[in-house]
């Protein structure tokens, strides 16, 4: 126990002696949160529309006004040529082209089905889908107003209608910040410790100091523990900082038990650090570590479900994700913070995470040999 | 020369291979308690490999090795309690101060904080480094670093200290001072196992072994070797052994 304490004192001295790193480990997550959380969003506003209105009737103008009136759409161009509209889209000046054919108003007046033609730039498929979603919403409303207008005339006919009221649970205002923040938090907390702990270990190899430790009676687990604990604490402090910023700067709701969140993050951090130390035991230079580390960091991060829904990944990817600690903490963070999940709700995720963390750490201790 | 003293290191048929390369080819020798044993050889002769095996940093391919009475295969942790080690690659923590390094390595060997403090005072006074106790190692001249590294390697009073080319890259005066420290440690009863390729240093040793291409070519006192090879200096002996065709 005293040995670990002595080694820990050394690690802390070294960590904070480097003034840049000593400050960066707390400043970086704050800055990253302030940048990333508001920046990463799926919300689309100001979809740029080019209208080709060949009809020029009251009905077509009503429709255009209705589109313009929403915050989602912005009518940038009007044209009478389909070709020109296509060119605008090619040049990236519009996202959506609406063509209103000549007989639009007449068809409505005659009670015939009126036609519209919509083209959406689908280079970004999810953006295109959202644009189309918003657009069809506006058309639906317009349809409703037409039907309402007609029922005025045919007042003896009653038209059955289904009225839908919806609520968005756990994120009432559909605020993407609330969705991203717990995820970003999970990654930030781990990434700093992961990189620093791994580099630290490889640096000892490079400078030869690890040899000096290896000829002493220090035990493997003592050395690994002393390498982990400082970054574990840094990670938890960063987590606390991150949550505070989320609540102060972004009005992030916190439904669940903070202790549960910290417990999960603690387990998660052990895994992340264990993996980093494992990688550092099988690499010899800081460059090698960074290469190998980036490989895992990027795969784990992008597959974690922070950007893409976990459920829409292919089967094999979901299987791989069973080994991805980030995907567990992503779910846990979101469930605890947004849903107020209790220990019982996330028991399985916590269990899996614990198994992974123990596994990675044992790998690191086993692979770190005092003898070559 | 107490030839009947007990052996503190016994090596029998030690072999270390890296793939097909044989770094240590069937080494057999003994080191006696309290002596200064010089391990000589050109660069790449296999000295460092042998020292690393003796310290438990590297596992031998085959052979028997006992250090301080413990077996190298099963008892490396016990060996490590009884040895000190200083390598050619300077290995104190550069980003810690003189005193922090002393406290770290002293503490690792289980020396109490009070004892560390007391011994530190004596040590720093003796080295004349009192004013430097709160200076980072990175800022010290190489000669000072090496003296400090040696002092820390024997801080826990090991039975044997292994020095792997301890004086590489320092001036003759610093080297002489360093050897004074080695004598002092030896007079306190610590067995010194030192590798070097400075042949003048070999003259300071009680016994020397000369390695070439992974084999021990000669092992005796410097005086005896000079007599056998009819040489005036160990350097001449070394040249005759390492380059027999040139003579």
How would you describe this protein?
The complex is a heterodimer of chains A (372) and B (247). The radius of gyration of chain A is 28 Å and the shape is elongated. In chain A, helix 9 (220-249) crosses helix 10 (258-282), helix 10 runs antiparallel to helix 13 and helix 13 packs antiparallel against helix 14 (347-367). In chain A, 66% of the residues lie in helices and 6% in strands. Chain A has 372 residues and is an alpha/beta fold. The longest helix of chain A has 32 residues, at 176-207. Chain A has 14 helices and 4 strands. Chain A has helices at 2-17, 19-39, 58-68, 82-90, 104-110, 125-153, 176-207, 209-214, 220-249, 258-282, 286-302, 315-321, 325-339, 347-367, and strands at residues 47-53, 73-79, 96-100, 117-120. Chain B is built from 9 helices and 10 strands. In chain B, the strands form 2 sheets. A 6-stranded mixed beta sheet of chain B has the order 6-7-8-3-9-10, sandwiched between helices. In chain B, helix 5 (142-153) runs parallel beside helix 6 (172-187). In chain B, 42% of the residues are buried. The interface between A and B is medium-sized, with 25 and 30 residues.
